[in-house]
Amino acid sequence: MLLTAGPTYEPIDPVRFIGNHSTGKMGFALAECFAQHGAQVQVIAGPTHMQATHPAITVTAVTTADEMYAAVKELAPWADIWVFAAAVADYKPKVVSDRKIKKSGNALTIELVKNVDIAAALGKEKREDQFAVGFALETDNESSNAREKLQKKNLNMIVLNSLNDPGAGFKHDTNKITIIERDAATAFELKQKSQVAQDIVNLIWERLYA
User: What are the boundaries of each domain within the chain?
Assistant: First the structure.
């Protein structure tokens, strides 16, 4: 199976970047659970301090969304399960300076352009025998936004978590999720991310192999 984890960092100049607060904890917890279920796991990880311990996990380190997309695109045809757990930056600077931008004036304007939506791009190539899982971190209209992503990205399942829930989201060891499918929604209580990962993997296994 193929799994993305962590953030992406989009460079502004040699010392600055646009990023987010993702730690990679959820993605690596999922990788360990999949490996314990007997899967050979390929992790494409953005900048993170997390490390894999199971021998069935191979980690490819990347930095930017473009690098992550290139690595995922190469491996995706061979994987039975795709899990897009990375927090990929939506935008990147249109122009990256090759030298440090010096401080001058009271304002700095950086023009941004959209990054590739990795899950959506791969969804267009997904075969019937492949199972794709996305993640949605929302603050407003959580369920409707997640269902829209499920449809647009051709996912079989999407894991929704809300920043409105205490203890959920980035920088926590816990998470509170709802797993949304086309005809079902399964809500879970706040749990340790290792337990959340087990819930997700168990449901995927149930859908695929029950």
Answer: 2-95+106-205
Encoded tokens for 165:
């829930």
Phi, psi of 23 (to 5 degrees): -105, -20
Catalytic (active site) residue 20? yes
- Cα 205 to chain center, whole Å? 19
Collect all residues with Cβ–Cβ distance below 8 Å to 117 and sequence separation of at least 6. Answer: 88, 153
Burial class (CB within 10 angstroms; exposed 0-12, middle 13-18, buried 19+) of 90? middle
Q: Hey, what CATH class is 2-95+106-205 in?
A: alpha beta
Integer Cα distance of 22 and 184 in angstroms: 28
Whether the CB-CB separation of 136 and 153 falls below 8 Å is answered with no
Beta bridge pairs of residue 113: 92
DSSP line for 15-52: S-EE-----SHHHHHHHHHHHHTT--EEEEE-S-S---
Per-residue model confidence as pLDDT tens digits over 32-79: 999 999 999 999 999 999 999 999 999 999 999 999 999 999 999 999
